[in-house]
Amino acid sequence: MAGMPDIQSSWIDSPHGKCFAARWRPTEGEASRSPIVLLHDSLGCVSLWREFPARLAAASGREVIAYDRLGYGRSSPYPGPQPSSFIADEAEYFHELRESFGLAHFVILGHSVGGGMAVEIAGRHADGCKALMTVAAQAFTEPRTLAGIREAEQAFQNPTAMARLAKHHGAKAEWVLRAWVDTWHSQAFADWTLDGALQRVTCPTLAIHGQHDEYGSLAQPERIATQVAGPAKMAILPCGHVPHRECPETLIATLLPFLAEPASA
């Protein structure tokens, strides 16, 4: 693997505040290849990707970009409750990120709910999205998802668990937790699916899922792989919901052949 790249940070203006972004530029690789943009999960942020972006940049020879959504990590607080349309809304915000980083072309990778956002972005930014990769994404609401969230909510009753969340989100930690729990258990999400968004995706797609994912069954990646309009593949990894922490080497080894395909350039 090439030398590990350094992180470079910046800020993106949005109508409601500033969003923190980071980029990792490999020491070796082809500058002409599309950068990889990462979208974090419901409790995530840039810092919770840990070493994965640097390792992915070094292994793929591509620039990797990650950002904290408004309300998360180092970004400004979200102005009010999270709307039930937040997954689809991220495709609108992505216009600002593309402009800020000058992204004529890109590859998108989303983890968990970030995977749903990646699907929305791939379909609505089809002019620039060369490939879509979802990791542990939800394509519809199922009982396992809701049960897993409730179990996690109970775990966060422990002050130590909330302190760990606050380490990454600061004073926004309680908002982050409630946005996750309350949105998924709202009436608006009872029949939520990504079906319409999936049908707009024409770029190559790789749907990755952990065999032991506690927040979604294998029906989730199957739905993604069979509903997108473009070519699609599915990969099942021997892990749970967070492959980039549980089995990062296996995840990167799964991503690299897909990224090497001409269509993903």
Explain what this protein looks like in three dimensions.
Pfam families: Abhydrolase_1. It comes from Halomonas fontilapidosi. Residues 35-244 form the AB hydrolase-1 domain. This protein is an alpha/beta fold. It has a single domain (7-260), classed as Rossmann fold. 39% of the residues lie in helices and 18% in strands. The chain contains ten helices and eight strands. It has helices at 52-60, 86-101, 113-124, 143-155, 159-169, 173-184, 195-198, 219-227, 243-246, 248-260; strands at 7-14, 17-24, 36-39, 64-67, 106-111, 129-135, 205-210, 232-237. Strands 1-2-4-3-5-6-7-8 form an eight-stranded mixed β-sheet, sandwiched between helices. It is globular, with a radius of gyration of 17 Å.
